């Protein structure tokens, strides 16, 4: 099962960054995210897997697809970088990957997982609201400020100005 | 949690409350007189700044995720003063017809990013550091894209958010490896567990390149000039002054505490990067015509100087760096204040437009000259002392060659800063920018910046205060 | 369920995914596909955190919470980025990087 998921993640990741059609790339990205969620299920982090499915696969990908539909003509192919640039980037990324992999493999992490109970939702809830060590109450509060600010910001950017709208109406 | 704990984190709490307060007050104000929000918001922020100076207990909260000490309070207060000046200078621009509808949003977003910087400065684990970083960057992108009808502004916004998202991705990859090797995100645990295994070195490099993006050190500076040029002037000044100052503070804290055990490594990295940053920043600044782009590259070069102080890895270097940031904030705010005052009235922002400015607007050109002198580091002004302390701290740590290169670079920078002064005072212009009177806000903002440049330069006690706080932070 | 699968296998996947994302960011010439590459990068980081948490430090939940927060932040980031991208589209009628190039380097 794991090997199947691993192959799926890698293949669809490559397709995501190479597909010429933007909408297809978004669909491949969706597959990658779902496969990642399946890996979380394998690791027995069911809560995280659920969040991954709803927020990431459900929320962000839908947002991306919407914006693709809004902004692109579907038949059109996405422009690509010059061949030279592609080769250079591939070399850079490949070299980085090889270097990082070698360092990771050399480090000698213990390979077997420590036997542990699957994390329950109660545990997560307790950690989320605890303000002691290994609790995440502060992070939880700060991220709510972040979401508020991002929301206000996105509204400011996306809101059309009245003046402009009237002008475009006149044009029509 | 007791009441005293709330006092300890008063900076963050009050600022968040004020964001909500502005949100609520904005609902009660009718669309026609949104400009009322400007004095309301500025006075709110003034109150916040004053409260920040009141003494309060320092302490560690949330099991180590948040810590407050006199030094972090000082850093936050420095940022606060900078933001007050930025807000004063933005008033004229906010009053314009096209911005009236979203005045309160400007304040809310800016304060939210400031809260993020506070949390970064006070963070005691990497989770809070990351969250603060994101809180300080995501809303910032919307500030850059604040002006609708200008395509440049939206372009600046998208460039900023994509490059900062990439950089935080790289930073996170480094963090994940730090977590894998140390088993915790808390600074105190990592500090003791950090060794020099190749993987940890690599993790540090990932982390550092993520941070270098934010301070726009040279191999990672490509976004800076475009974003600075495209964003509205006042947002640019916020970017280059407050946001950069905050990132420098965080770099000081993280390098000096968490990564103290691998100081030999990051010293080498900083050594190389500071040389490249100074040289590239200077060379590009030489050929800029747009004043905002010019200031962008000059601020890149200044960031290179800043790394010099960090290299000392001792209290002296730390003090010199904080002092330099303080000077940098005021000098840059002076320069940006003039640029924004002129931009708000005439829309001009090229260096050649400033030809003959002294004839028509002597006060503005005098302030511009003062800021340029301060940025260049010419003796009587504050900037000289900033650079001087940096160079001595690096020299006392034994980096003579680096100091030599830095002095050479400072001389080159002298040339282009003086070019601006020459344009204003000597060059002739057939139709110079006409004389204008800026409004009260702008004037107060400009006066504050000028006062800052003077006071910091001549009141030597500031340096001693910072020194006394710097000792005791490095363990 | 993951008995017998060494930790390194997960790390290899996530590292490959990370660098595929970097490659995509460098070569893509469309703002939305660049955003998608960033999502790949963040996803790779998430896998790292979760696997380290599970295999090495299961007593605490640091890795798990870090991933949760990265997901939330990524959502905010994507929302803001897409708001700006749509704004650009209104101005340029295109979201390809080559056209979004009013400013010279």
Describe the structure.
The complex is a heterotrimer of chains A (172), B (475) and C (105). Chain A is built from seven helices and no strands. With 172 residues, chain A is mainly α. Chain A is globular. Chain B is mainly α. Helices cover 76% and strands 1% of the residues of chain B. The model of chain B has no long low-confidence stretch (mean pLDDT 85). Chain C has 105 residues and is an all-alpha fold. Chain C is elongated, with a radius of gyration of 18 Å. At the A-C interface, α1, α2, α3, α4 and α5 of A face α1, α2 and α3 of C.
Give me the secondary-structure category of chain B.
Answer: mainly alpha
**SSE series of chain C:** HHH
Kindly report the oligomeric state of this protein.
Answer: heterotrimer
End-to-end Cα distance of chain B, whole Å, is 27 Å
Unreliable stretches covering 5 or more consecutive residues of chain B: none
Strand content of chain B: under 5%
Helical content of chain B stands at over 70%
In short:
The complex is a heterotrimer of chains A (172), B (475) and C (105). Chain B is an all-alpha fold and 475 residues long.
Features:
heterotrimer; A: 172 residues; Four Helix Bundle (Hemerythrin (Met), subunit A); 7 helices; globular; disordered C terminus; B: mainly alpha; two-stranded antiparallel sheet; 2 strands
Fold blueprint:
The complex is a heterotrimer of chains A (172), B (475) and C (105).
Chain A lengths: L1 H17 L3 H21 L3 H26 L11 H25 L13 H9 L7 H22 L3 H10 L1
Chain B lengths: L2 H6 L1 H19 L8 H17 L5 E3 L4 E3 L1 H25 L8 H20 L3 H19 L6 H32 L4 H7 L4 H18 L6 H9 L2 H25 L5 H24 L4 H21 L3 H32 L10 H4 L1 H15 L5 H15 L3 H26 L14 H19 L2 H10 L5
Antiparallel strand pairs in B: 1-2
Chain C lengths: L6 H21 L3 H25 L6 H31 L13
Helix pairs in contact in C: 1-2, 2-3
